[in-house]
Design goal:
Mean pLDDT: 91
Strand content: 15-25%
Radius of gyration: 12 Å
Number of strands: 4
Structural class: alpha/beta
CATH topology: Macrophage Migration Inhibitory Factor
Number of domains: 1
Low-confidence stretches: none
Number of helices: 2
CATH class: Alpha Beta
CATH architecture: 2-Layer Sandwich
């Protein structure tokens, strides 16, 4: 799965994002469109992904919250999945 990137980051941020996306591709239900990673003004990296159902959205959000928590503990870089139901 390809992810669109809209951010400029240092090596630590890009490494953390790579770790996040690796887990995302392994365990997330298939999104309806390629996910998009953007960095907010708060320096948080948001990975936006649209799903077919609320259940898929919940499954992905729940799992990736755990992954994101592990990454922020280890690296100090906050990466969060922003899942939504695509219509």
């Amino acid at each position: 799965m390809k992810t669109q990137l809209a951010l400029t980051g240092d090596a630590k941020t890009l490494d953390a994002l790579s770790r996040f996306l690796t887990q995302f591709e392994k365990f997330s239900p298939e999104p309806v469109a390629p996910p998009k990673a953007v960095q907010g003004e708060d320096r948080v990296v948001y990975v936006e992904a649209g799903y077919r159902t609320e259940e898929e959205t919940f499954i992905a959000g729940d799992h990736m919250a755990t992954v994101g928590a592990d990454i922020v503990e280890e690296t100090g870089v906050l990466i969060a999945l922003a899942p939504f139901v695509a219509s």
